[in-house]
Amino acid sequence: MSGFSIDWLDLREDADRRARDSSLREQALQWLTGEGRSASAPLVVDLGAGTGSTLRALGGSGQQRLNWRLVDHDQTLLEEARRRHGATHVVEACVADLSPVEALPLAGARLVTASALFDLVSSGFVESLATVLKDQCRQSPVGLYAALNYDGATLWTPPHPLDEPVLQAFNRDQRTDKGFGPALGPQAGPVMEAQFRRAGFEVYTAVSPWVLGATDQGMVSALIDGIASAVAGSSGLDSGALRDWVRFRHDHAATGTCTVGHTDLLVLPGRG
């Protein structure tokens, strides 16, 4: 799995927080604390947990009694998560390779969560996870809350002639192997919805776009550089034209806007 720095995760967190669909977030919390669970605090297993952004989004206030199992392949990120939350939350950190689904530490979970993860995984990963969670539901109901899955849409203002070619090249890169096999990229939301419905789950979806403006200049600048790095060398993109695009985008990072499409999904056991 591709790595992410603490700096980048911190840069994007406010945009992630604003983008999350509030109704799905509340529905996920209601699932955690509603009927059909044990009297003890429910367990949330967060995949690709990083520094704990999902914890902060769902239980950062400490008002909900939740136990957290944070799972990531990066020990440095998990140590940072434990530093930030170990004194205020029940946190178990698990360093693990996320790609073998059957080996993921999901036992006892009331809710499995992930933020900005499923556009990196393969269709096979999603199919295996749906099967594992369906089997787990035979013992105890478990849901999945997957937020901020990239949907392939990006809109910049002011426009530039290279915006669409850069986006097409970026979306092709998003489908390459990120450590789980060929990545779903922009197809993450539709594939997840189809796979989990096929497995008998109820699936709720909502759009959750980043809407970035002047206050997000640092993040926008990092996003521009990240996109340029991903598409450098792509067929059909002249390197000089790409440098001009990068320069133009940086020149307007403080005055322009950028909207990046995402989808949130909440998957719950079917009533049957």
Low-confidence stretches: none
User: Helix fraction?
Assistant: 40-55%
Overall average pLDDT: 94
Q: Considering the protein shown, what is the CATH homologous superfamily of the domain at 6-152 and 178-209 and 261-269?
A: Vaccinia Virus protein VP39
Count of strand segments: 8
Structural category is: alpha/beta
Termini gap: 36 Å
CATH topology of the domain at 6-152 and 178-209 and 261-269: Rossmann fold
Helical segment count: 9
Any idea what the shape is? globular
Q: Quickly name the level 1 CATH class of the domain at 6-152 and 178-209 and 261-269.
A: Alpha Beta
Largest sheet: 8 strands, mixed
Polypeptide structure, described:
The chain is α/β, with parallel strands linked by helices and 272 residues long. It has a domain at 6-152 and 178-209 and 261-269: Rossmann fold, CATH 3.40.50. The protein has helices at residues 6-19, 22-33, 53-59, 75-85, 123-137, 163-174, 188-198, 217-231, 239-251; strands spanning 43-47, 67-72, 90-95, 111-115, 143-157, 201-207, 210-212, 257-269. Strands 1, 2, 3, 4, 5, 6, 7 and 8 form an 8-stranded mixed β-sheet that branches. The two termini are 36 Å apart. 40% of the residues are buried.
